[in-house]
Structure formats: C-alpha cells, structure tokens
Design a protein that fits this description.
Strand content: 5-15%
Largest sheet: 7 strands, mixed
CATH architecture of the largest domain: 3-Layer(aba) Sandwich
C-alpha cells in the first residue's frame, strides 16, 4: 500500500458528513432531485448579504494595483486592524492589529495553532458532541485528541473535563454555538471551564490554551448574547471564519485572534505566522481580505435561520422526537427514537431524507440535521421524519 498508515486509518474514519452528502448525490441521480431532501451538510444556501456584493463591486471598479501580490504572511495590516477594532467593540477588550492573523478559514487557523503549540503526544481536549475534523486536526500534527463526554442535555461534563486534564494537556477546543447541537454554552459554563483550566495550570505548572472556535458566533437566537471566553481565561485564542456569518464557505477566509490579556501574545503570534507559511497556507486569500475588512459588523439575516429552526423544532416535537431547541448555529441534534441511530438513518434514507448519525460527532444515539437549506427542502423532509419514526415504533 502506497498511502501512509495513519492516512489510511483517517480515511476509513473519515467524516460521516461527507459520506452522507455523497450518498445524497447518488440518491438524487437515482430518484430525482425533487424526491431527495438532503439535510446532511452545513453548506448555506442563502446568498451573502448585499453589503458583500456592494464591496465586491466597489473593489472590481477600483481594482487597486498590486492586489494579487504577496503580502505579509499574517495578512494585510489594515484588515487586521479592522478586525481588532471590531473585536474591541464586541468584547470591551483592547485588541490591536498584532493580536490578529488572517487565515485560510477557521480550519486553516486551527491547524496552525495545533502545529505551533503541540509537541508529539501532547493532548488536545475536545468537547463532545464535536465537529469531527477536530480529531484529524490534532492528529495532523502528532497531538493526541482526548474527548470529554457530555451530559444528556448536551452540555459538557465538567467533572469529566477536569479528570481528563493531564500534564500533557496543551489545548482545549471550545465550539459554541456548537456544531452539531446548536447549543450555546452559557456564561456560567464558560466561566467554570476557565476556572478548571486555571486550577489545572497551577496544579501541573503548565500552560493550557483555550481555543474558541466561533464560526457561528453571530448566528444566535432568542436574544442570547455570546459569552466571550477571553473574559474568563487569559490564554484564549479566538478562531473564526466568514463561511457562516457572511455565507462565504467557498472563499476560505477567516482569522485567529489572541486575547489582549495573554502575556505571551507576541511570541505566539510570531509562531502562528511562521506556521501559516510553512504549512503551505502562506497567506489568506488577498481579494477576500480586502472585502471582509469593511464587513466585520455585517451578518446574514439571522431571523431567516431562526424561523427555520422554529418550524423544524415544532415539526419534530409533533412527530414524537426528543430534541433540545438550539440557541444558535443552523443545526439540530435530536435523540434517536431507537438506541442504534443507524436504524433511524436507514429508515430516513428510505424516505429520501438524509441526516448524519450522531456517532460521527462522538455521541451515538443522536443524529444531526442541518437546516441551512431552502424552505422547500425542509418542508419536504417532514413527512419522511414522521413516517420513519412511526415505522420504527410500529405505529
């Protein structure tokens, strides 16, 4: 076999999300697009806000010279300053341009961070349910992913978190609003996590970095306010992208930002920028940097997603599913009506409905629905959800 052994294993364990998406393409070819309702992939169908199109048009018309050349590996200074100013307004902390590095999406930033911080066999704590790629991001750089179990309400088990921190713990990834559950961890939970990390740092005389992955930070419902972890833990690194809040997943534009409270911020930023280069990202896409610099306070219409959430939640509850109502993002994570969620997944496939099994997110017995789809797809899937649960319950 010519492929490296670890890559062979990762390919076998590869994301359930992609598997279901590819199955959806096959089913559409077999049954017709109108008979398949694909709720598997977090690929927003909404278009970017008008402000993005305005910035793009302005950019094309002005077409500044030299825009396709290399820039500093950390990104354009004026873009980093724009993001620092926006973060300062949001958090009340004094971010500077030097606290920010532009990245090839949130995924690029996460790989940069793990590469810069982790020695071989250092541990990366990952709260379950989790975005499956986190496991691979850790392994990419010879770190060891360590999974923290959730409670039944999909909130992190803080006792399990505390027990799983060791002298080898280097990073903890926090993802809120959470993919796949849509849960927003409240300020009290974030504060408790910060205290646990601080206590363990003192106990082991180590440094642990809290990496807050926030691509859904601006997609929050019901008047919730985002609880910024940097208020509770000084060694916080913010990671985000504009894939979701500006509906630009294909443009691969994001950033990482170091908390101004962090003592070692300059040392870390130098390492992150170096790793951004040597990992082959080199720099974030130039044109997208120009465009998002003026869009930091712009977001897609969150009410659109909130309406979809309300419709889907009501329909699932009426059909007999058990589900926590999400506070953010555009995912729902219901409990399977049967212990093995693959029975439900298969029953839904028979109905032309595609969702992702919970085992792909570290929580068997659940399944993920992505509702960032058009209303016709969402509405068309409801009879399939009803028929599948009735079939499994023998109704």
């Amino acid at each position: 076999m010519t492929i490296a052994l670890n890559i062979q294993k990762h390919m076998r364990d590869s994301s359930w999300i992609r598997r279901m998406f590819e199955l959806g393409l096959a089913l559409k070819a077999e049954r017709g697009d109108e008979n398949v309702f694909d709720l598997s992939l977090g690929n927003p169908v909404v278009e970017p806000p008008q402000e993005f199109h305005d910035e793009l048009e302005k950019y094309v018309q002005s077409y500044p010279k030299g825009v396709h050349r290399y820039m500093p590996n950390g990104g354009y200074g004026f873009v980093r300053q724009s993001i620092a100013d926006s973060l300062s307004r949001e958090t009340g902390l004094e971010y500077q341009a030097d606290n920010v590095m532009m990245s090839v999406g949130a995924a690029g930033a996460l790989n940069v961070i793990v590469h810069a911080l982790c020695n071989p066999d250092d541990e990366v704590l990952i709260l379950s349910p989790y975005f499956a790629e986190y496991l691979f991001y850790a392994s990419n750089h010879h770190a060891k992913p360590v999974v923290v179990e959730p409670h039944d309400d999909l909130m992190p088990d803080l006792v399990d978190l505390s027990n799983k921190i060791t002298p080898k713990t280097r990073i903890m990834i926090l993802n809120s609003p959470n993919n796949p559950s849509g849960v927003v961890y409240p300020d009290s939970t974030v504060k408790a996590i910060g205290k646990i990390l601080s206590d363990k740092e003192r106990e082991y005389k180590t440094k642990i970095f809290l990496v807050s992955d926030e691509p859904y930070r601006k997609i929050i419902f019901d008047g919730y306010h985002y609880p910024f972890p940097q208020h509770h833990y000084k060694r916080t690194v913010t990671v985000t992208s504009h894939a979701k809040d500006l509906a630009l997943p294909g443009e691969r534009i994001g950033y990482l930002a170091l908390s101004p409270k962090m003592d070692e911020a300059q040392e870390l930023m130098d390492a992150f920028i170096f790793c951004n280069r040597v990992l082959g990202f080199v720099n974030a896409p130039a044109i997208m940097q120009h465009l998002v610099s003026n869009l930091q306070d712009v977001t897609i219409d969150v009410k659109n997603y909130e309406a979809k959430r309300d419709f889907l939640y009501s329909a699932l509850i009426d059909a007999g599913y058990e589900v926590r109502k999400p506070e953010g993002a555009f995912y729902m994570f219901p409990k399977s009506p049967v212990e093995d969620e693959m029975e439900l997944i298969n029953a839904l496939q028979d109905e032309g409905v595609l969702v992702v099994p919970g085992r792909g997110f570290g929580v068997p017995g659940y399944f993920r629905i992505s509702y960032c789809v058009d209303n016709a797809t969402l509405e068309g899937a409801i009879p399939g959800f009803r028929n599948a649960i009735n079939k499994l319950k023998g109704n």
